[in-house]
Every structure is written in structure tokens, then in C-alpha cells.
Batch of 4 targets.
Target 1
Amino acid sequence: MLESLITSKTRLKLLVKFFINENNQSHLRGLADEFGESTNAIRKELNHLTEAGFLVKQSEKNKIEYKANTDHPLYQNLHELIRKYLGLDRLLEAILERMGDVSQVVLTGDYANGNSSGVISVDILGQNLNEAYLEKLSVRIENLIGKKVDFKISQGDIDPKGLILYTK
């Protein structure tokens, strides 16, 4: 879907990296290693996104760190678009549908850090949760969004680096 609109795979990876979680930041070499691409390809896309105002850069020691520009007028739209692209809206809807008294849903692991590994890790916190529903839900969600989903019911020990998708 989004691949037909944004034809540069590198640009799409960068948008996922920075717009899934506003706290994600990285530098050129780190991104090149993470994506398995040349520094020139990454630099070109970083420059385009920075010139357009979607990313901001700041010097830290001898490195230039990039992160999403949350003040950009289109930040919220891109943030929501990336969440829809990854299927997080449908995932959240399915969890809240019949899981019970859910108090918090947190995206953890690679996707919370903006890495498209193919496995979405989700922690669910709440009371009287329907654990049997999770097994069925996992298969349903995988078919719905085309990505493997790993659910974990938490007892209050939510990953502080995770991305909160829902709070009651």
C-alpha cells in the first residue's frame, strides 16, 4: 500500500524508524548498519527528509543525530499513517474487542524502536484478561496485517522503552 506511494525503500524504512515513536533517534552509520544499506543511500534520504522539515538533526559528540520533527505540521498525520501501514490500528482494535479489562497496550521490541523485523511484540496489561482469546487473536492478526505478532500478558512490568498504544 504505502510502498506504491513512497517508492524509495530506504525512505520508507526511515519514515517507519522515526515516525513510529517520536523518541527514536539515530545517526548515519547506525542507520546504514541497521538497514544493511550504503551510507550514501541513507545520507541522500536523510538530507531530503531534513530539507523538507520532517527530520531535525543535532550534533552529539562527533555524530549528527536525526529524529522526527514533532513540530512539523504533518508530523501527526505521518505518525498515524505509519501506524496504519504497520497495522497497529487494527491490532489495537482486535485486542480491545474481547480481551477483557485492558488497562494498557504497549508495543515493545524491534517495532517500538522503528526496526521492521517482521515480528510485532505487544505487552498487554489489565485485569481478568481472556488469555485463551490471545491464541486465536494472534493467528487472526497475522492474517489481517501480514506480520507475526507476539503477545505477552504483563503483570505491571511494562517495558519503559516501549511505545504506549493504549491507556485506559
Target 2
Amino acid sequence: MTLTETTHPSATPTAQAAAPAAPRLASDFFGFQGRLSGPEQAAALRVRTFMETEVRPVADGFWSRAEFPRHLIPALAELGLLGAFVPEVRHFENTAVYRGWIALELARVDAGVATFVGVQSGLAMGAVHVGGSPEQQAWWLPRMATGEVVGAFGLTEPLSGSDSARGLRTTARREGDHWVLRGEKRWIGNGTFADVVVVLAKDVADGQVKGFLVATDSPGFTASKIEDKISLRSVQNADIMLDDVVVPEDRRLPGIRSFRDVATVLRLTRCDVAWQAIGIAVGAYEAALAYALQREQFGKPIAAHQLVQDLLARCVGNITASIALCLQASAMQDEGVQRDEHSALAKSFATSRMRETVGWAREILGGNGIVLEHGVARFFADAEAIYSYEGTRDMNSLIVGRAITGHQAFV
């Protein structure tokens, strides 16, 4: 069995007529890929080809060395993956469903590359798109879309994660025509090699969260790589220190005036993280299926054993349910009716099912499931980071619970 099959008959006639359809992933059991338009399917096929030919051969090595393949950034930009949702810089008009599917395609091969794109395109560029002035958008977004400028997003702190709405300790103090930032940030993706970091800090004058474009060569700014991770090893997470960093007023993002504005940026990306989780589940499942078809025990492939087939069927069920949920959530984003609880449920559900799926995939491989060469171990490890970032399962469940009951139970 191959990892791709012919396009599912559920693909829309319009999508099929507009451009040659990309081969459907075998893990796409219900043919959801057919919901993409023709141009979107063609773009998805280009991304899949790039990930298979350029990323898969090097992914394990960079993961093992805890290095990021920075040489791939120009190609990611050429594929239109940086700023795909920003009208001013995107390569073609596309949907949130397409962007979610692309997150799946990236994470299916390498969650580290998917995370880089999510940070650059979703969080850093998203913050400029949502909160930047027209002048800031005109200067920063094109440069970030080409990869000339690498961005990062500084929200999480050593003592503030899930409670960022209230618990930010990094401060910003206005002094004439500039601001002075002081504090710490942690787990900042791209942080060790970014050119600019969107830093969220609390204004000491009014207590509101504001956003700043902080150049990483600013005096008082230091970024230190977080070492010894067991998950997303290729992602360059940093501890950042801001020791009275001076930021000009024209580097403040005027559209970010409170945490409510920050939440708007996070809302743009949370559903994409759910799609990333599906991609990790798909990658682990595909590796487990390929292994099961060639590994023999008791005189036949283990894929012919009932218990292995049961695990594979469970994996497909989780993947299918997660795609269906995320597809609807992304479609609601396209329609402008998605609310926080919708993206929260998608992220909570998809990451929980991902965690189950990678566990079952590793189980199919037995002891071989914990070494990189058989294709499951990296997904198994990376799933743990995806499970936690962009809102833990617990916090997203409480967002959904608030919508269901009308009662807030965060504290």
C-alpha cells in the first residue's frame, strides 16, 4: 500500500476542474481533501512534494542534533507559506480550511517545520497584521513573507503561561518618545535566531497589555536556547531577558491595547495548531502502517493480525474525527462566525486524539517504536509539546465549559 491514493469521489467538480487534484492521503479515509479548491489542491501538492523530497530526508538528523534547518526558510517562503492568510502578501486567495490542511501537510513530515511556519506566519506576522499601523504592516509584512526577517512571539513567561491574561510580569514604561521594557520570556519559538520579537508587556501606567516590535540586537536583549528538550527538538525555543530594553514609540503596535487584542492573534492560530496535531497523528499512523505491512511475526505480516488491525482502525477513527471537527471550525472561520470556544474545542479534541494515536502507533512497532529510524518515535515525542502549547487541554476545556454553562471556572 502506498501513502497516497487517487482523489476521493467526494471531491467537488469545481475543485477537480480548476487544477489537477493532489493524490489523496491514504489516511484521509473520508476524502476530506476534496473540500479544497483546485488551486488549493495544487498548492497542497507542491507543499507535500517539498516536504517529502527536501524535509523528510533531513528531519531526523536536525531533530537529533536539536538544530533547525534554516536553509529551508527561503523555500518555505517561495511556497507561499509565510503570511498565507495576510491579503497584502499571500500568493493567492485561499481559505482557512486550506491553511489548516497545509499545517497538516507540514506536521505530517516534520512538526518542527510546522511550528516555525506557525510562529512566523501566524503569531509574529499575525500580530503585525492585527495590531500594526499601516506603515508597520507595509514595512514588516513583505520582509517577513520572504523570510528576510524572521519573527518570534513573546507572550509566555517563566511564571506566566495559562494565566497570561492576568499574570504578565514583563513591564513597559513610557519615557518621552520611547518605551523601556523589563522582564523575562520563556519558550519563545524561533527566539535564538529571530530578527524581531513581538513582545507583550504590561503598561505600568494603565495596567493594560501592549505589543512591541523588539529588534533582537537591541542593548539589554538576550536570548538563550532552552536545552535538553525531549519534544520539538529542532524548534529553537529561547529564554529571553529584557533588561531595560529601549523601544521607540514607532515600534509599538498601536492595535494591541489590551489582552483582548492579543487573544485575537491567538484565535488566528489556535485552530491551525489543532491541524498540526492531526498531521502528527497522520505521520505516526502512516509510519506504523508501513511497518506493519512489512514486519513479519508468526509467519505473516503483523498487519494481518487482529490486534494490529484494531489499533490501525482506532488511529484512522481518531484522525477522521479530528479532521471533520477542524474542517468545520476552519470553515466557520472563513464565514466569520467562529468563536473562541470553537477553536478551543478543536485544539483540545485534536491534541487529545493525537496523543492516543501516536501511542497506538508506537505500540504497533513494539521496541522499534522508540528509535528514530522506524519513523514513529519523533512524532511520539513531538506530540507532547503540541499537546501543551497554544493553550493546554485543561484551559481549552474551560473555555468550552464557559460557553456551555455561562459560568467561568478558571479560578
Target 3
Amino acid sequence: MPQEWRAPRHVIARPAAYHLHRPPRGHRWVRVNHDAVLVVSATGIIVEIMPGLFR
């Protein structure tokens, strides 16, 4: 995932508010358009996608 999508403005600070599981250490949920995407913070590797969560 490109660095621009991992910027703080895209990070989902309270995943539980959207019924997302707590990210493992070193991971974070980010919002990409209508989707929530779990990525490895350091590399941007995508681990999980919750499509259409933000419709």
C-alpha cells in the first residue's frame, strides 16, 4: 500500500467503533475510500480488507 494511504489522516484511531478487531502489534487499520484495510505499519503490506465498511 502506498505511503500516502498510511498517513495519519487515514488511520482509523478507534477500530472498535466500526466493529473491527484490535490490530495486532505493528499493524493498523486505515481507511481507503469505502474500505477498511489492515496493514503492517512499517511496510504497508495488506493483511485484511473489510470492503464497503464506509458507505
Target 4
Amino acid sequence: MAVLLQQIINGLSLGSIYALIALGYTMVYGIIQLINFAHGDIMMAGAYIAFFVVVYLKLNIWWAFLISMIGSALLGVLIERVAYKPLRNATRLAPLITAIGMSLFLENGGLMVLGTDIRSYPGGLITNAQLPLVIFGMRLTATTLQLLILAITIVMMIILQYIVHYTRAGKAMRAVSYDADAARLMGINVDNTISLTFALGSAFAAVAGILLGLYYNTIQPLMGIMPGLKAFVAAVIGGIGLIPGAMVGGFALGIFETMVSGYWSSNLRDPIVFLLLILILLVKPAGLLGKNNTEKV
């Protein structure tokens, strides 16, 4: 039981990062039904922005979070305006191919500009001490970084829920996701609303990229590929297009991964994750929190 609880603690910290990335996927899909495969690479860009802020500008990690979120948000809006907006009325396949192309462009552009070297954040940015925990009389351990990752994720999710449900921009986002044409007739600027969605999702990806870089103590230009794909799996598991679904899917996937690594083999972690995606699509295509909607034609 102690080993099980310890793996759950480890899984929550990893799942928190997946949940933050999955939120960007699910927000964009909820608005324009597009899987933005460049989202993981925006996360990579956010991690590098933070690295340059702390290494060259000599600012602390909290300034790095803020500047990285702003920079990634601007990058997300730029990608949306250049790559996706001109295809707004195209067939569903065209934006999907463009998203894959944009992902490859960012990855290879990152390799050309940043090089292939693996870099690490400077030590001492965040205290990472071992903290003893006692749960049901069992002694467990968690690091301050793990608790910080979980706390930041929860705070970010609360902020997003507030924006979506209690602000004018959030109401516009919900209206556009429900019916973009009707929202436009009601005076909502659909293009600006979509850009705002990309900005928010990209800012969340930047936070995830920094946390991932701190968690594994490495960043490199291709770091967004696998976490981005796994976050997409998390969004599908929870119910793509649903913000609570992204949260549930991220936490569930993180715990599932640590269980596979702890009780079986870390080499089988990635194949089993994608096998889980196939099973979910076969058994419950709408995800754990999603509902199958019947459409009349």
C-alpha cells in the first residue's frame, strides 16, 4: 500500500504537467474543432524562453514564468493568424495537415537555432527538498518541487475556470464554441476570441514546459514531441473539448504511467499509453466525461 500511494504522489506531479498541456488542446478543439499538433512545440518554446530569462537576464524563476507565458501566448496567436486563420473555411483535413507542418517547422527550426545540446536550468531556482509525509500511518516522501507543480496546476486551472465562466471573454469563448455563426450575429468578434483561446492555451503550455524542464532538469528542442502526444491522449481520455476532462485525463494518465513504470517496466510505459488511447476510442470515444451527441442531418 505504501508503494501504491508513493506512485500516486509521483503520478500526480507528472499528471499535472500533462493536464496543463491538455488544456491547450481541449480549448482549441472546443472552439474550432482543430487538433493543434504544434502545441507541444509551443511548450518547448516556453521552456527555452524561461531558460534565457534566468540565464542571460539573471531574473528569478517567477519572472521567467511571466515572461515565458507572454512570449508563448504571442507565439500561439502568431501561429493561429498565419497558419490557421486563412484555412478557417477550408476542409477539416487542411488545418490538420497545416498543424503537423507547423509542428515540424518549430521542431526543426528549434534544432537549427538552438542546436542539439541538452541544457538544464541553473541550480537553486527552486528549493527541491525531500518532505516526509504520513498518510494512513504510512511514511511517504514528496519533494517541494512535486508539491509546487501540483499547486501551480491547481491554481492555473482555477484561474482558467474563472475566466471561462465569469468573464466577458470567457462567455464569448463559450458562445463561439457552441455556434460561431450565431455568436458573430450577436456582435462577438469570433477571430479575436479564437486568438484569445490560442493565447491562453499557449500560456498554459509555457508553464507546463518550465515545470517539465525543472522536473527532469533537461530541456532540448524536441522535448515537446512526446509530452505533447501524451497530453493529447490525456485530453481524449478525459473528453476532448471539456476543460474538466483535460484535468481528469492528465491526472489519470500521469498516475497510469507511474504505475506501469513502478510495477512493470519503464520501457513499456509509452507503448501502453498509446494502447490505452486505442482502447478508450474503442470503448468510449467521447472520453470519460464526454457524452455522445446525436446529430440530425
